[in-house]
Protein backbone atom coordinates (compact mmCIF):
# COMPACT_ATOMS: atom_id res chain seq x y z
CA UNK A 1 0.00 0.00 0.00
CA UNK A 2 1.35 3.41 -0.94
CA UNK A 3 0.25 6.77 0.38
CA UNK A 4 0.82 10.28 -0.97
CA UNK A 5 -0.86 13.66 -0.54
CA UNK A 6 -0.60 14.42 -4.26
CA UNK A 7 -3.12 12.95 -6.73
CA UNK A 8 -0.63 13.68 -9.53
CA UNK A 9 2.02 11.54 -7.82
CA UNK A 10 -0.47 8.72 -7.35
CA UNK A 11 -1.32 8.99 -11.04
CA UNK A 12 2.36 8.41 -11.84
CA UNK A 13 2.20 5.24 -9.73
CA UNK A 14 -0.94 4.16 -11.59
CA UNK A 15 0.73 4.84 -14.96
CA UNK A 16 3.61 2.64 -13.88
CA UNK A 17 1.17 -0.10 -12.90
CA UNK A 18 2.63 -0.50 -9.41
CA UNK A 19 1.51 -3.48 -7.39
CA UNK A 20 -0.72 -2.88 -4.41
CA UNK A 21 -3.20 -0.23 -3.40
CA UNK A 22 -2.77 3.51 -3.34
CA UNK A 23 -4.16 5.90 -0.75
CA UNK A 24 -4.59 9.65 -1.15
CA UNK A 25 -3.76 11.09 2.25
CA UNK A 26 -1.76 13.51 4.34
CA UNK A 27 0.81 11.79 6.57
CA UNK A 28 0.28 14.56 9.09
CA UNK A 29 -3.32 13.40 9.57
CA UNK A 30 -2.05 9.96 10.52
CA UNK A 31 -1.89 6.61 8.83
CA UNK A 32 -5.44 5.37 8.11
CA UNK A 33 -4.76 1.69 8.71
CA UNK A 34 -5.82 -0.94 11.21
CA UNK A 35 -3.45 -1.88 14.01
CA UNK A 36 -0.76 -4.41 13.12
CA UNK A 37 -1.50 -4.36 9.38
CA UNK A 38 2.06 -4.08 8.04
CA UNK A 39 5.42 -5.79 8.43
CA UNK A 40 7.37 -2.78 7.32
CA UNK A 41 7.32 0.76 5.99
CA UNK A 42 9.60 2.52 3.51
CA UNK A 43 9.50 6.23 2.86
CA UNK A 44 11.66 8.04 0.35
CA UNK A 45 12.17 11.80 0.44
CA UNK A 46 8.84 12.62 2.09
CA UNK A 47 9.20 12.89 5.87
CA UNK A 48 10.91 16.27 5.82
CA UNK A 49 7.70 17.85 4.52
CA UNK A 50 6.08 17.31 7.90
CA UNK A 51 8.59 19.78 9.36
CA UNK A 52 6.95 22.61 7.41
CA UNK A 53 3.84 24.49 8.51
CA UNK A 54 2.12 24.96 5.14
CA UNK A 55 -1.08 26.18 6.78
CA UNK A 56 -1.65 28.37 9.82
CA UNK A 57 -3.24 25.43 11.59
CA UNK A 58 -0.20 23.20 11.01
CA UNK A 59 1.97 22.36 13.99
CA UNK A 60 4.99 20.31 12.79
CA UNK A 61 5.56 18.64 16.20
CA UNK A 62 1.89 17.60 16.38
CA UNK A 63 1.78 16.39 12.79
CA UNK A 64 4.95 14.38 13.25
CA UNK A 65 3.62 12.86 16.47
CA UNK A 66 0.30 11.96 14.83
CA UNK A 67 2.16 10.41 11.93
CA UNK A 68 4.50 8.35 14.10
CA UNK A 69 1.89 7.16 16.62
CA UNK A 70 -0.49 5.98 13.91
CA UNK A 71 2.33 4.44 11.89
CA UNK A 72 3.57 2.64 15.00
CA UNK A 73 0.19 1.15 15.66
CA UNK A 74 -0.26 0.08 12.03
CA UNK A 75 2.98 -1.94 12.20
CA UNK A 76 3.03 -5.52 13.45
CA UNK A 77 5.33 -6.39 16.34
CA UNK A 78 8.91 -6.73 15.11
CA UNK A 79 8.38 -4.48 12.09
CA UNK A 80 10.82 -1.95 10.82
CA UNK A 81 10.35 1.44 9.27
CA UNK A 82 12.99 3.05 7.09
CA UNK A 83 12.99 6.67 6.09
CA UNK A 84 15.20 8.49 3.66
CA UNK A 85 14.87 12.21 3.99
CA UNK A 86 16.44 15.54 3.25
CA UNK A 87 16.38 17.61 6.42
CA UNK A 88 17.08 21.31 6.18
CA UNK A 89 19.07 21.37 9.38
CA UNK A 90 19.92 19.41 12.51
CA UNK A 91 16.91 20.88 14.37
CA UNK A 92 14.58 19.12 11.95
CA UNK A 93 16.34 15.82 12.52
CA UNK A 94 16.15 16.33 16.26
CA UNK A 95 12.43 17.12 16.05
CA UNK A 96 11.73 14.08 13.88
CA UNK A 97 13.65 11.66 16.08
CA UNK A 98 12.17 13.10 19.29
CA UNK A 99 8.60 12.69 18.03
CA UNK A 100 9.34 9.19 16.72
CA UNK A 101 10.78 8.09 20.06
CA UNK A 102 7.79 9.59 21.91
CA UNK A 103 5.54 7.51 19.69
CA UNK A 104 7.36 4.33 20.74
CA UNK A 105 9.99 3.85 18.07
CA UNK A 106 13.62 3.24 18.78
CA UNK A 107 16.53 3.03 16.41
CA UNK A 108 19.18 5.12 14.86
CA UNK A 109 20.29 7.32 12.10
CA UNK A 110 22.86 6.79 9.42
CA UNK A 111 24.25 9.18 6.89
CA UNK A 112 25.45 8.15 3.48
CA UNK A 113 28.88 9.38 2.51
CA UNK A 114 29.83 9.69 6.22
CA UNK A 115 33.27 11.00 5.26
CA UNK A 116 31.86 13.80 3.21
CA UNK A 117 32.26 17.18 4.83
CA UNK A 118 29.14 18.22 2.90
CA UNK A 119 27.01 15.61 4.64
CA UNK A 120 28.52 16.32 8.03
CA UNK A 121 27.59 19.96 7.71
CA UNK A 122 24.00 18.93 7.07
CA UNK A 123 23.69 20.98 3.95
CA UNK A 124 20.22 20.72 2.39
CA UNK A 125 21.25 18.28 -0.29
CA UNK A 126 22.82 15.78 2.07
CA UNK A 127 20.85 12.57 2.16
CA UNK A 128 20.02 11.08 5.54
CA UNK A 129 18.41 7.81 6.34
CA UNK A 130 17.43 6.23 9.63
CA UNK A 131 15.51 3.24 10.76
CA UNK A 132 13.53 2.38 13.85
CA UNK A 133 13.17 -1.08 15.26
CA UNK A 134 9.92 -1.51 17.14
CA UNK A 135 10.81 -4.87 18.58
CA UNK A 136 14.52 -5.35 19.21
CA UNK A 137 15.13 -1.79 20.33
CA UNK A 138 18.59 -2.05 18.90
CA UNK A 139 20.73 -0.74 16.11
CA UNK A 140 20.70 -2.54 12.76
CA UNK A 141 23.29 -2.54 9.97
CA UNK A 142 23.53 0.61 7.96
CA UNK A 143 20.92 1.07 5.27
CA UNK A 144 21.62 3.61 2.59
CA UNK A 145 19.22 5.27 0.20
CA UNK A 146 20.31 7.51 -2.60
C1 LIG B 1 10.42 13.84 -3.44
S1 LIG B 1 8.81 13.14 -3.60
C2 LIG B 1 9.16 11.43 -3.38
C3 LIG B 1 8.10 10.56 -3.95
C4 LIG B 1 8.36 9.05 -3.89
N1 LIG B 1 8.51 8.63 -2.51
C5 LIG B 1 9.55 8.68 -4.70
O1 LIG B 1 10.58 8.28 -4.13
O2 LIG B 1 9.47 8.76 -5.93
C6 LIG B 1 8.04 13.61 -2.08
C7 LIG B 1 6.63 13.15 -2.00
O3 LIG B 1 6.12 13.43 -0.69
C8 LIG B 1 4.75 13.73 -0.85
N2 LIG B 1 4.27 14.42 0.36
C9 LIG B 1 4.62 15.65 0.79
N3 LIG B 1 3.96 15.96 1.92
C10 LIG B 1 3.18 14.88 2.20
C11 LIG B 1 2.23 14.60 3.24
N4 LIG B 1 1.99 15.50 4.19
N5 LIG B 1 1.60 13.42 3.22
C12 LIG B 1 1.85 12.50 2.24
N6 LIG B 1 2.73 12.72 1.24
C13 LIG B 1 3.39 13.90 1.21
C14 LIG B 1 4.73 14.58 -2.10
O4 LIG B 1 3.43 14.67 -2.67
C15 LIG B 1 5.72 13.85 -2.98
O5 LIG B 1 5.08 12.89 -3.80
UniProtKB/TrEMBL annotation:
Transmembrane segments: none
A GO MF label: rRNA (guanine) methyltransferase activity
GO cellular component, one term: nucleolus
Gene3D superfamilies tied to this protein: Vaccinia Virus protein VP39
Any one biological process term the GO annotation gives: rRNA (guanine-N7)-methylation
Domain of life: Eukaryota
InterPro entries (alphabetical): Bud23-like, Methyltransf_11, SAM-dependent_MTases_sf
A matching Pfam family: Methyltransf_11
Coiled coil: none
Domain Methyltransferase type: 1-53
Protein's name in the database: BUD23 rRNA methyltransferase and ribosome maturation factor
Organism, scientific name: Oryzias sinensis (Chinese medaka)
Amino acid sequence: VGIDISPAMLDVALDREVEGDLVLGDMGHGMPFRAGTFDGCISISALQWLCNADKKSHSPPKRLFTFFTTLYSSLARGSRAVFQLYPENSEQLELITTQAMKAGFSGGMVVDYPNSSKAKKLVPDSSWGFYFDTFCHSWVPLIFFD
